[in-house]
Amino acid sequence: MNLIFLGPPGAGKGTQSEGICRDYGTIQLSTGDILRENRKTGTELGQKAESYMIDGELVPDEIIIDMIKQEMRKPELAAGYLLDGFPRTVPQAKAFDALLSQLGQKLDCVLVLNVPNQELVARLTSRRTCRSCGKTYHLMFKPPLAEGICDLDGGELYQRKDDVEETVINRLSVYENQTKPLIDYYQKQGLAKVIDGVGKLDEVYARLKAVLD
Ligand code: AP5
Ligand code: MG
Fold this sequence. Notes:
Elements: E1 2-6, H1 13-24, E2 27-30, H2 31-41, H3 44-55, H4 61-71, E3 81-84, H5 90-103, E4 109-114, H6 117-125, E5 127-130, E6 136-138, E7 157-158, H7 165-179, H8 181-188, E8 192-196, H9 201-212
The chain binds BIS(adenosine)-5'-pentaphosphate and magnesium ion.
């Protein structure tokens, strides 16, 4: 299955990707994770993206489209993929449509996770992320077993710089203006499925699973 996961910052795309990839054999491709990894290792791409990410702005389309073209060459994606955080603008979606037809692939579904802004702010400002593996937690809703330490690999948990309240508010308005139009774009292609992202983690997952099944 080839899927796109669309939704505002904090909607639960990264969190719910785990279950989808486990149950449907898709590979998660998160543009945010790829960019953060590049920043960590200090690549040219990471340096180009850094200031945009810290401010909660989108990295320019050309940079992201080049990056996706590289990523889509990976042979393991033949099993099916789940794009988390891409596309995020209409030009990105159009470039991706062109790439799909070049590769002779098609999308099966665009999952749109809906959560009201007030809850998104609460989710993001209390999110903690593992410095080594990127797994995410929430101080109240999904706490780690031991404070400040990743359950999976014992890595240090930190707060992403773009998860401070002022930047979260900017990211939400960037989503509203630049990414939300994609819901309509994929609705016109008959691919968008809107899912309520409010509720316990397993309740939200059950809704996603019902759509995918
Ligand atoms: P990216 O990393 O993609 O961030 P995002 O889209 O802003 O999304 P998040 O990762 O913040 O949210 P999520 O939906 O994954 O939520 P999560 O599951 O963690 O992008 C970061 C930056 O990179 C961008 O700002 C931009 O600069 C750049 N970038 C990336 N892609 C780009 C592109 N295509 N074009 C241009 N620039 C790009 O959950 C959030 C929290 O909520 C967690 O703490 C979690 O535990 C908790 N939670 C999840 N579900 C629930 C629930 N049901 N109830 C309670 N809490 C919950
Ligand atoms: Mg994420």
